[in-house]
Amino acid sequence: KMGVFSMLHGMAVRAQAINGLSRRGGGGSWPGGSFWSQGTQTGHNGFLFGEVPLSPGEARRVQWWEPIWYLGYGGFFAGVYAIYHTKPLEALDIAYWAKPRAEAELGVEMRMLDKLQVRPDLQERLQVVAKHLKLVDAELYDLVLMRSEYKVLMGLHDGRVPSELKSIYEDLAAE
């Protein structure tokens, strides 16, 4: 059990400890005053980073980190240049790889739509599925063209779309 007096005594000790600490940014241990003061520099010499120019004939001393920095940046840009300029054009231009794939997909879709026009039984089955999904007749073709869309595939997987639609897709895709 903690008495009222011991609790007040603990609060007083903590308050004295907090007051005894030097304030943030305060204290006289920094040269020229506090941390937030102007500092000890008497004036700017007008040169970048305060470096004065070398006297004539004097060689600049290379710092330890400079070769690492130059080699790292030079190697990086040389690698980017080499990778970019040695890649085949097909890897950089979407028209080279996407056009044949899109043409093949369009061919499959056109065959499916032609088969749907020729076979009225598939049309009737598709209309039943469309009514179940609350679609209008104009959206039947969209349902055929969306056969590989994520929403349709997930709907078939988790049962939100009737499994009859999967068999319609299989019948349409069959040669």
Separation of termini? Answer: 87 Å
Mean pLDDT: 81
The shape is flat
Content of β-strand: under 5%
Radius of gyration: 39 Å
- The structural class is mainly alpha
Kindly state the percentage of residues in helix: 55-70%
> How would you spell out the order of helices and strands?
HHHHHHHH
The DSSP helix count reads 8
Q: Total strand count, please?
A: 0
What about the largest sheet? none
Topology diagram in text:
Elements: H1 4-20, H2 66-86, H3 89-92, H4 94-118, H5 120-132, H6 140-145, H7 150-158, H8 164-173
Describe the structure.
The structure is a single chain. This protein has 175 residues and is mainly α. Helices cover 60% and strands 0% of the residues. Helix 5 (120-132) packs antiparallel against helix 8 (164-173). The longest helix has 25 residues, at 94-118.
Characteristics:
175 residues, 0% strand, 8 helices, single chain, mainly alpha, 60% helix, flat
Outline:
By secondary structure, this protein is mainly alpha-helical. The chain has 8 helices and no strands. Helices cover 60% and strands 0% of the residues.
